[in-house]
Amino acid sequence: MSSPSPLKLGVLLCAPTQLMDVAPFDMLGMLDKHYAQAAQLPEHLASKALNIEYCFINETGESPHLMTGGFKLAVTHSIETCPPLDILLIGGPAISYRPSEPIQHFIQTQYEHVRALLTICTGYIPALYSGILDGKTATAPRGLLPMLKEEKPNVKWVEKRWARDGKVWSSGAMANGMDLMAGFMWDEFEEQRGLTEMMMGMADFVKRGEVY
Question: pLDDT for 161-177, tens place per residue?
Answer without folding.
Answer: 999 999 999 999 999 99
